[in-house]
Specification:
mainly alpha; 6% strand; two-stranded antiparallel ribbon
């Protein structure tokens, strides 16, 4: 049976917490979430909202994208698949005016250097 997203997120959160030698009580206070709910999230019984997940990550001093990348890698490994982006840092390249118009540029594609804008932002001018 495939691992559910909430189970993978919970497992990654628990690993992050225990590696930092933090207690459930400590993290629940810092994240401003009940101890019982955090426990349920870690056990994969509850699926946290994005706001709650961001708060827990902040309390654990980990970046949300790093947590999600770990979750993706774990889910791919558990399902016997190789995730094409595993272990890589891809760059989002704007290709349109909406957030949905983003695509991943492979590392080494020469599209952007780390820490620099990926593409010039087109200015929007009002038609007179």
């Amino acid at each position: 049976m495939a691992v559910l997203l909430r189970e993978a997120i919970g497992g990654s959160l628990r690993r992050a917490r225990t590696l930092r030698r933090r207690t459930l009580r400590d993290v629940s206070r810092a994240a401003r979430v009940s101890l019982g709910y955090l426990s349920e999230v870690e056990r994969g019984r509850k699926e946290p909202s994005s706001e709650l997940l961001a708060s827990i990550c902040e309390a654990l001093d980990i970046a949300l994208p790093d947590l999600l990348a770990e979750v993706i890698d774990d889910m791919a490994r558990d399902s016997g698949l190789e995730f094409a982006g595993a272990g890589r840092r891809d760059t989002l390249v704007p290709i349109g005016q909406r957030h949905a118009d983003l695509r991943l540029a492979p590392v080494g594609s020469g599209l952007a250097a780390p820490g620099t804008p990926t593409a010039p932002v087109a200015s929007v001018s009002a038609a007179a």
